[in-house]
Amino acid sequence: MIKAATQESMDRMKEYAQEEEKPGADGMTGKLDLGRYLEHYSVRYKIKKAEDATLHVLDHCLFNAEHGRGESAIGQLDNGALFYKCFHLSCSQYTWNDARQAISGSASIRDFIQGGTGESDRERRPRWLLPARF
């Protein structure tokens, strides 16, 4: 016998779906093609699929080359969220934002976004709506 979903579980699913649809912090929508991004910047990795994420297991840590043998990874959840993980205590503070900075500096990731607009909210607004620069 199949049980009907409770209203509470339906509300939680709606909230989760709405969170997934929100644009990233930089205003861009869509999902980063992480493999293409890493290949573009010559970051060597191997793919490992987890239950709800894809891990790009790196040949070495981005912050300490002595950390090798697959001891660090950049992961992407199925909803597109990104994270960085090195399993050494000395690197435990590093996040995806740190990894992105180490890989590509301040370069835009716009060219690696799939299924979104590839542009920020600021770029979509008419010029007359943008704040003046002094």
Assembly state (oligomeric): single chain
H and E order: HEHEEEEHEH
Arithmetic mean of pLDDT: 75
Overall morphology = globular
Strand content: 15-25%
Extract low-pLDDT stretches: 1-5, 9-25, 118-134
- The percent range for helix content is 25-40%
Largest sheet: 4 strands, antiparallel
Rg over CA atoms: 18 Å
Number of helices: 4
DSSP, total strands = 6
Distance between the termini: 67 Å
Strand order in the sheet with the most strands: 2-3-4-5
Question: Which structural category fits the helices and strands?
Answer: alpha+beta
Provide structural commentary.
The longest helix has 15 residues, at 7-21. The protein has four helices and six strands, in the order H-E-H-E-E-E-E-H-E-H. It starts with 6 loop residues before the first helix and ends in a 10-residue tail after the last helix. The protein has helices at residues 7-21, 34-40, 96-104, 121-124; strands spanning 31-32, 45-49, 53-60, 68-77, 82-86, 113-114. The chain is 26% helix and 24% strand. The chain has 134 residues and is an alpha+beta fold. The strands form two sheets. A four-stranded antiparallel β-sheet has the order 2-3-4-5, with helices on one face. A two-stranded antiparallel sheet has the order 1-6.
